[in-house]
Task: structure prediction
Amino acid sequence: MAKRALAAVLQEIRPPEERPLRLEEMEIPPLEEGAILARVVMAGVCGTDVHILHGHVPIRLPTILGHENVARVEAIGGDRPVLDITGREVRVGDLITWLPKSCMRCYNCTILGDPAKCEHRIGYGGWLPADRHPYLVGGFAEYVWLLPGSDVVILPSGISPEAVVLGDALRIMVHGLERIGGLDYGDVVVIQGCGPVGIMGLLLARDAGASRVIVIGAPASRLALARAFGADETIDITQVPVQERIQRVLELTDGRGADVVLECAGVPAAVAEGLEMVRINGRYLIAGHYGDAGKVPLNPHVINKKQITITGVWSATNRHFLRALTLLRKVHVDPLITHRFTLKEVNEALIAAERQEALKVVIEP
Ligand SMILES: [Zn+2]
Ligand SMILES: [Zn+2]
Result:
């Protein structure tokens, strides 16, 4: 078993351009019963990581970011079998990912039955400190040390590491669509935002039989990817002002508005805009606000008059991730990975992710 590992440690919150991540060589703690040491194959850079570096998402410092990971099992502690979340035995050499662990004992887990809102969620890649055992707690590193009882998934064959990395965004949209009661065949869907979450919403809408999908966002390179992945129309927010965007959606929907609007932008003003695009009795999903981006004036009359159902979604559970894998088996999503970096270039990776010319950035240690 390897003895030492390079890891990109975040000591203090500073924006990507200040290159806040520092490579440190860390000792790999010996494995205890049920723990797993895995060598990172690929770690996705998430919009959440960028929000973290701007102080918009609370985390525990110092830490190692990277919560969208694929790794190969190098060693397993003890000799009792370790099972993944589907009950398969994890073996050395398996390609795995792992998900945030919900306690299944708190009020939100038990009474509400909603492990996505667990009060004691254990999340690798920002929510476990790196100055305490087991130290290697995030994917921006050569190795990760997974605590006994972690929610590991052995990756089924036929799924690329790239697809698994995108599964982080996809599982949120699987969860979101579940919360709004799914899409109806033939729905017109508007998606606000063309980052990974928006594009995953697009893939799901297409798969669910949407008659038309309109994607609103920027920059042009991301909108081009949206068209390549099935968007019928795209509207560039840097070229078309708000009122014209609303007008355009109404024109494309016989003046009625869309059946469903999915907010995947994380920009407060998008919510006020998006509600104007929903039809009578339509549905509006807020999925993009993982970081607290602030307030926005809203006209409640719009919601009232059109009887709009507004739903929020927060993260996802293991079930949503496993369901996301079924779509990732069908659609070849690898072209959505636009930028690749080594671990030594980790700060450059975060800068690229922030600039948004990239759709999805990954680190391959
Ligand atoms: Zn993420
Ligand atoms: Zn819980």
